[in-house]
Design brief:
120 residues, mainly beta, seven-stranded mixed beta sheet, globular
């Protein structure tokens, strides 16, 4: 059974960098044909795909967030991380990590989500 767990600060000040880590258990983040995703949901809005890091380490980002987003991984800890720079209150959201099965392109495991509030 694969499990994902998000961790990081729940409160970030405007203009700072939001940093979250997703710890994966029950499966390796280097296993082929999976990609590891960050998705967020602002209050009262739908899910927003932020970016993904594939099993081979290549990362892809949402065009609207690309200039502020970085996704990396630590294979020794089986973790992948999100950094979102220059945050504003509009980045307040529940942040989820999820595993994407590349074929047939579906999310099969999700973390429980972590609330991040951007406020001074």
């Amino acid at each position: 059974q694969v499990q994902l767990q998000e961790s990081g600060p729940g409160l970030v000040k405007p203009s700072q960098t939001l940093s979250l880590t997703c710890t994966v258990s029950g499966g390796s983040i280097t296993t082929g044909y999976y990609a590891w995703t960050w998705i967020r949901q602002p209050p009262g809005k739908g899910l927003e795909w932020m970016g993904v890091i594939a099993y081979d380490g290549r990362a892809y980002y949402s065009p609207s967030l690309k200039s502020r987003t970085s996704i990396s991984r630590d294979t020794s800890k089986n973790q992948f991380s999100l950094q979102l720079s220059s945050v504003t209150p509009e980045d307040t959201a529940v942040y989820y990590c999820a595993r994407l099965l590349l074929v047939p392109h579906e999310y099969d495991y999700w973390g429980q989500g972590t609330q991040v509030t951007v406020s001074s």
